[in-house]
Design a protein that fits this description.
Layout (H helix, E strand, L loop, with lengths): L6 E3 L6 E3 L10 H23 L37 E3 L4 H17 L10 E2 L5 E6 L8 E6 L2 E2 L10 E6 L5 E5 L9 H6 L11
Antiparallel strand pairs: 1-2, 3-5, 4-7, 5-6, 6-8, 8-9
Amino acid sequence: MLDVDAQRLSPAGGRAYRRGGGRPADPRRPLIIAGAFAAAIVLGVAIGLATAPADTPTPRTAPTAAPPAELQPPLEPSAWEGSRQPGTAHQMRVRPVDRRALGASLAYALQEAGAAGLTADNVVIPQGKLFYGAVEGVDSAADEYWAVGLAQVTGVTAAPPNPQVWKRVGNGPWKRIAQGARACDGLPTGLFTAWQGRPPLCSGA
């Protein structure tokens, strides 16, 4: 015989009973279940919002200003182009455009350090106080150009310590890379041979 869970009314028209259990059916049960389900949904949404990662924008790097064009004067044709020996040092002729480029490079470096308004006109490299040389690379793009000199700077509160050392790679811009009493320590030693000794101005005088 099948045990059918059918509802029936009591003879007095009272609560409904289910066969086999003998317990009255609670008419509020569907409402309780629906309320619990809605509460679970609200709780889930709240937890999701609380644990969602913050939408933090990616910080942008401030653009770096391009160096002035006068820091990159055209190079003279190299005498070693047809017979390269990487690492070999050469003494170079100082042209007026080279001297101005070195002055502009120093002014640019001082501007980046906070000295506003400086130009190449604020920098004087006296005659006889500049050594210029090159070191061969595997190709023209790897050739290194070096200079060391004494610079007189106007328009600054404190003059930068001498000597100044500059470097240029290939056709790139001149960059002031060292200054002060030990600035010459970073020069390629082959240049001292090309210059017939360590320049006296490396002492800063």
